Amino acid sequence: MIPRLLPCLLAAALGAAEPTWKLTLEENFDGGELNPKVWNIETGKRRDSLNSPKAVDLKDGILKITTWTDADGTTYCGFVTTRKKFAVTQGKAVARCRFSVQPGTQIAFWAQSPTYGKSGKAAGAAEDGVEIDILETTGLKKGGYQSVLHWGPYGHKEEKKNSSVQHPKPVGAEWHDYGVEWDDSGYRFTFDGTVAWTDTKCPGSKAPQFLLLTSESNIKGWNGERPQQGYGIKDAQAAFQNTFEVDWVKAWERVPAAK
């Protein structure tokens, strides 16, 4: 009887095989400008600053976002996204980054859904999408960072949910890989390819999630207090200390295992 079971056991084992991955984005930031088929530089007022191309530079294969203040007191931030151009659906995304952030500024590598909060219920997050903050930090964290999940409509006390973890070790000054993989079972956040945090409380987003590489600045807020005179003009300092640099970004979609 045992030999007759072998084909069934083999079939079951094959059916439970791990999925494979299809590379859907490999951005190395080569050339003098962002690929317009993939990236947007979003503009306009956000918080106490202005999103502007003036904060975004591409040189030697590095995307550099500098949060700086001009002589008139305007603080410029960079908001680089794949909104309406590229998205990941139940896959994974990784970016190689380094950063040096001053108080009043926050930077992030994150993913968002255009239908976030649409149902008005936290329980609808799988279909609505989730804010996935893969790498988020401020000047108060002194080179450490956090990973955060937000779901449910913003501004709704009962339905707005979040889950987070702190990574206090100062790592920002060096290049590291920050990533996330997600499916119906939850989220697995990675640091240099090793799982650093797993969350199963937040519903696994089934919605397309676009990617963002951003800086934001408040005069005073959870990210600290901006220096009274601002951050200064970025080109005036050889070692400007309010930057977010990205070497590359990659994304993959899950290819279900054959049954």
Descriptive notes:
The protein has 259 residues and is mostly beta strands. 7% of the residues lie in helices and 46% in strands. The protein has one domain: Jelly Rolls (Sandwich). The radius of gyration is 20 Å and the shape is globular.
Approximate helicity band: under 10%
Indicate the CATH class.
Mainly Beta
As for the CATH topology, it is Jelly Rolls
Main structural class: mainly beta
What's the rounded overall pLDDT mean? 92
How many strand segments?
21
What fraction of the residues are assigned to beta strands by DSSP? Answer: over 45%
In total, the number of domains comes to: 1
Alpha carbon gap, first and last residue: 25 Å
Number of helices: 2
Which outline best applies? Answer: globular
So, CATH architecture?
Sandwich
| Residue runs with pLDDT of under 50 for 5 or more positions | 1-15
Helix/strand layout:
Elements: H1 2-15, E1 20-27, E2 40-41, E3 44-46, E4 49-51, E5 56-59, E6 62-66, E7 68-69, E8 75-77, E9 79-81, E10 91-100, E11 105-112, H2 125-128, E12 131-138, E13 145-151, E14 161-167, E15 176-183, E16 186-191, E17 194-199, E18 210-217, E19 220-221, E20 224-225, E21 243-255
Parallel strand pairs: 4-8
Antiparallel strand pairs: 1-21, 2-9, 3-4, 5-6, 6-21, 7-8, 9-18, 10-15, 10-21, 11-12, 11-18, 12-13, 13-14, 15-16, 16-17, 19-20
List its salient traits.
21 strands; single chain; 259 residues; eight-stranded antiparallel beta sheet; Jelly Rolls; mainly beta; disordered N terminus; seven-stranded antiparallel beta sheet
